[in-house]
Structures are given as C-alpha cells and as structure tokens.
Specification:
Elements: E1 9-17, H1 20-32, E2 38-43, H2 48-54, H3 60-67, E3 71-76, H4 81-91, E4 96-102, E5 115-121, E6 132-134, E7 139-141, H5 147-163, E8 168-173, H6 181-193, E9 200-205, H7 206-215, E10 222-225, H8 227-240, E11 248-252, E12 257-261, H9 278-290, H10 294-310, H11 324-333
Parallel strand pairs: 1-2, 1-3, 3-12, 5-10, 8-9, 8-10
Antiparallel strand pairs: 4-5, 4-11, 6-7, 11-12
Helix pairs in contact: 1-9, 1-11, 5-6, 7-8, 9-10, 10-11
Length: about 325
C-alpha cells in the first residue's frame, strides 16, 4: 500500500466536508504540521453544505484538486456521501478500500488482540448506482462481478499480506446461494492464491464470517471481499474495537489515493467539540505509509497509543470528557 516515491514536498488535497469532518480534520492537520515533512495543503469543498452553496456536492474544481494531489484527506460527508465518495472512487479508479480493524487500549474493545485488514472491492457490486432502477413492481438492483476487477482486488489482498508479513488471506462470499457471481469470485480467489504459495488461502460464507468476527476475530489477518459485504463487515469490525471513532480507511487506485475515517458527519454533535479525531488521524497515518513516510507514521501512531494508554484524555465515546482539540493537543505533546 505504498507509492514508489518519497518527495521533499507533498501536495495534499484536504476536503473537510460536513459536520464533524471539519473538526477532526483541523485536529489531524495540527499533528501533521508537527512532523518533519513539508506538506502543501490544497483545500476543496464537497458534501451537503457544498451542494447547497454551489448546486453540486462534488464540484469539478474539487475533483481537479484531488487529481493533482499526491494524496487526499477527506473528513466526512452527510446525506450526499454516495454522490461524493462513490464518485471520487469511480473518477480516480480507486478500486481498493482498506479498513484496518485493530484493538487499542482504553477503547472498550471486546478483545485486546484483534488486528486484521479488510480489503474491499470498490468499483462494482450492488453499490454501482446506475445498475439500480425503479420498476412497475418495485425496484431492481443489478450486482455486477467481473473477472478483471475481482482478480485485481484479490491480487492486491495477497500482495498486501506479502508486504506486511501476514500469513493468511480469507475470501468472504455467499457462493452457496449466489452460485454464479460469488462462485466466480471464489474461483478467482483460489486461482490468484496459486501465485502466492507461502500465504495460506481460505474462504468462508459471509454469514459465518459475521459470526466468527464476534467469536474468534483473532483468526483473521487479511479479509478480501466484494463491495457490500466489505462495507457491512468493516462496521461490525468497528464494534469489536470500540466504535467508528477508531476506524480509518484508505481508497487506493490507479490514479490516486484518498484517506478518510469510516464514521459519518455526525450532525447531532457537530460544532460541539465532542468528536473523536483518532479515526481521522489513523487515516492520515495510512496516508503517511502510502507516501513511504514510515518513520513519521510510526511516530504519529506511537503518540496516539501513549494518549490511549494513559487514558486521561479521551472523548465521550471512549468514556472520557475531553474535547476534540484537547485530544489533539495531548497527542501533539507526545510526539
């Protein structure tokens, strides 16, 4: 999950978006500015507020900012999330969605030893809106699975495992019912697995996986799956490790990369300084690793870990009473 270059200066597209997106983005930039890396931030607008202001939730100007950047940091979008994030993924050919599920201390995690990556296909499946339509009887949604897209995402998952010293990749599907589409996915999985003889390959039905995530999540290292299943399982994974305030994500593709927290815009607490910034910060750490700035990524994550271990500066979702900026300042002081 990295580029082949390390630059003296990086151009970063910054899209705060809606609601708490602005707050967690400000908190994250505060830490990035303390690192010994030269970032040139180019800000763009997207989301509900942008739609009301400009008539479109994702202006072409913002897309151009993302196209010209080395990477993009995205905060959160509200009701227009599908019109924003899905379109960016499609425009930038961001075919791989990465969602790490990892236990941290003082986070209400159900287990203290969970650490796996969900690799989710981003470009097809039920989430492609132009395959959904109303009919006289109701509605129809078409689920498209192609050999090219599934080979690409499965190969990405195995390569990720290889590069990150993981010994096993698990395919998740429902091939016992969706015999043709998920049957094809499973067949492609084992075909690709032959290229990686040192990595164990296994597969489970998605319903069984949902159970195993609760009963034995430690067995997973890398999960690869289709679009809808990956979205659902990653939110279940968030429940394992303390909630959406702790889950980052990356969208990696041929033409760029976007990093965002999994949580939404949380309009009920927006502007109140209550949002947990850690998911946004962990997303920025994923960005640093993508840029091959691994030393800075380790430093940033260690500072977060120190604050969580101390347990004195936590937001409300983790049982504390600290504000977004107080958490950011504590992390800054631990760099």
């Amino acid at each position: 999950m990295s580029t082949s270059k390390t630059k003296d200066k990086y151009q970063i597209a910054v899209i705060p978006g809606d609601g708490i997106g602005k707050e967690v983005m400000d908190a994250t930039i505060l830490i990035l500015d303390e690192l010994d890396i030269d970032f040139d931030y180019v800000y763009g607008e997207a989301g509900d507020e942008c739609g009301k202001k400009t008539g479109t939730p994702l202006p072409e100007k913002t897309l151009n900012i993302i196209r010209n950047a080395d990477a993009c940091l995205f905060g959160a979008a509200g009701e227009t999330a599908a019109d924003v994030i899905v379109k960016i993924r499609q425009e930038m050919k961001m075919y791989a969605n990465l969602r790490p599920i990892k236990s941290y201390p003082n986070t209400n995690a159900l287990f203290d030893d969970v650490d796996f990556m969900i690799v989710r296909e981003n470009t097809e499946g039920l989430y492609i809106a132009d395959k959904e339509e109303l009919t006289e009887d109701g509605a129809i949604a078409k689920r498209v699975i192609t050999k090219k897209a599934e080979e690409r995402i499965i190969d990405y998952a195995f390569n990720y495992a290889k590069e990150n010293n993981k010994s096993k990749v698990t395919a998740v599907h429902k091939a016992n019912v969706l015999k043709k589409s998920d049957g094809l996915f499973r067949q492609i999985f084992y075909d690709v697995a032959e290229k990686y003889p040192d990595i164990e390959a296994e597969d489970f039905y998605v319903d069984a996986t949902a159970m195993y995530l609760i009963t034995q999540p430690q067995k997973f290292e890398v999960i690869v799956t289709t679009n809808l299943f990956g979205d659902i399982l990653s939110d279940e994974g968030a429940g394992l490790v303390g909630g959406l305030g702790l889950i980052p994500s990356a969208n990696i593709g041929e033409d760029g990369a976007l990093f965002e927290p999994v949580h939404g815009s949380a309009p009920d607490i927006a502007g109140e300084g209550k949002a947990n910034p850690i998911a946004m910060m962990l997303s920025a750490i994923m960005m640093l690793r993508y840029l091959n700035e691994n030393e800075a990524a380790e430093k940033f994550e260690a500072a977060i870990l120190k604050v969580l271990n101390d347990g004195e500066t936590l937001t409300g979702d983790l049982g504390g009473s600290s504000s977004t900026i107080e958490v950011a300042e504590a992390i800054k002081n631990n760099l």
